[in-house]
Write a structure and sequence with these properties.
The complex is a heterodimer of chains A (287) and B (325).
Chain A (H helix, E strand, L loop, with lengths): L3 H29 L6 H19 L3 H22 L9 H23 L14 E4 L2 E4 H23 L1 H11 L1 H6 L4 H23 L9 H16 L4 H21 L5 H15 L10
Antiparallel strand pairs in A: 1-2
Helix pairs in contact in A: 1-5, 1-8, 1-9, 1-10, 2-3, 2-4, 2-8, 2-9, 3-8, 5-6, 5-8, 6-8, 9-10, 9-11, 10-11
Chain B lengths: L1 H18 L6 H26 L8 H18 L3 H25 L4 H20 L10 E2 L17 H23 L2 H11 L1 H6 L4 H27 L1 E2 L1 H4 L2 H14 L6 H23 L4 H16 L4 H9 L7
Antiparallel strand pairs in B: 1-2
Helix pairs in contact in B: 2-6, 2-9, 2-11, 2-12, 3-4, 3-5, 3-9, 4-9, 6-9, 7-9, 11-12, 12-13
Classes of the chains: A mainly alpha (287), B mainly alpha (325).
Amino acid sequence: MPVYVNFVVAGFLTGAVYGLMALGLSVIFGVVRVVNFAHGEMMVLGMYATILLNHYLGLDPLLCAPLDAALLFALGYALQRGLINRYIARPEHEQFILMLGIATLLTSSMLMAFGPEARNVQPDYALDSYELGSLVLDKVRVYAAAGAFVSVALLWAFFRLSRTGKAIRACADNQVGAQVVGLDVGRLYAVTFGIGAACVGAAGTLMLLLVDVQPYLAADYTLLSFIIVIIGGLGSMPGALLGGLLIGVSEGLSAYLITPSLKSLISFGLLIVVLLMRPEGLLGRRA
Amino acid sequence: MRRRRTLVALVLLAAVLLVLPFFVGSYVLSVLVVFLFAAYLGQCWNIMMGFAGLLSLGHALYVGLGAYVAAALYVKLGVPPWIGLGAGMIAAGAAGAGIAALSFRFGVTGVYFALLTIAFDEFTRILFDHIDWVGGSAGLFLKVTTLTHSDPVHLRGSPAMFYYLLLALSAAVLALSWALLRRRIGYYWLAIREDQAAAQSLGINVFRYKLAAVVLSAGLTAVAGSVMAFYDNNLYPDTLFTTARSVEIITGPVIGGAGTLFGPILGAFVLTTLGEAMTVLGATVGIPGLKQWFYGGALIVIVLLQPAGVWPWLRRRLRLGEDER
């Protein structure tokens, strides 16, 4: 089996975590119509929360994922209720400055609390791998991807089956209609923002299995989330997952075939092509 | 009456800015240069967003192109700075025209347009990281020479020379913005910003005027980039093209008041002062990150109190000006 298959599969597995991260952004935009420019900051917050839980309680990073999701849900809910809700009807550049302020606060808080050096967690299976013939898979990568797929499945079930999930979809389809039939749109927006934040918090936990964390990673993750959701279709859930997998594979392949430092060039190139050829994204609907 | 008050205020402001370098030390002068860069760049961005309603989050692209074209021509081929500056303007204008024409033809608008500008900027940043002719990610450097007097023809000189150069540029772009808003093109831009479909139905060539706003804004932005190259004497893709710079460029005019004439200048002043105060505070307390923490907090407070910017509020308080600018 050729060597590049290893890179494709590894990229695919990392891409699943990217997908979960971008899903959070997509859910928020799809319903609240606000672009969360503090998305990468929330991702990094999830990573640091995992470090704390792992360090003080000795929890396995995989077990931290639900806890981090709950923590970020609370943060997202509070942010939407307290601040962002007032800006929903304001122009985009004003929303942008608000989100920028929030992002700056989050990054600098983490810098003050944890310092600039890179940190990671070392579960005892960190160096294990599965071997299928000549295909070698890191155990952590498989676990992270499995965690991401489970999270996406749970989210899908929530939006399809639960009453709140259906109500949120109604809000996304027709906000005025949702208000007319008596839905509490303000609360649903807050719940949605919470869910989006929870996704990215869980993604941060899973990503920590694969990379070290430092405060300045946040901006890169924000940009990466944008690339993925635009490619998949802003507001589309399957689109975010597909975009994540695509970018994961393309990063893995370009790191192997060209040079690692050029991998984001390919990602941005893909983004430009998709935006021009199909602005609504691969799986998005035209607004 | 109000017109006269505005005129008097303008003359006073100009007089203060003209004599300021004689009364301040080198530290304050360097801060003033930072302020003027921000004021100039904010005004350039404002032409696109404030007047024509096109949100650019990738203006660092034009700064970087202006800087790299002028510096590379000077260092590698010995082309005089002012000619390089012109070439930088043309390069940035062409890049802006390309991006705008593609976006508008393919119907990329709103948030999507903003994200596309980020994508082109980041794409170019990584590209320049790998162009070895201009030094790649290791950077491009201009030879620093010690001169007895400033030499504006070759853009070599003291910080005071750059201060006056930037002051002149800022004043020029302010006058240009003022003049454009009073001409047909200005009214067309505002019409497009308020309601593109309505503007189109009145027979305005929306494509052409939006394109004009982008090209003008990009070309003027590149001028600051070229000047920055000769002021700093070093160029790195990761500091020139970074999205952090684009964010800096947009923060000033939004805080000051997008779409107004003085908003970008006031915003640049507020943010530069705030940034310096926070640096001093951070250095005194000695906690890394505290500076950005207060900065982020201040952004939130300002945007909560005055979502449309500080200038419209201040103008009402000072009872200046007759119109909404």
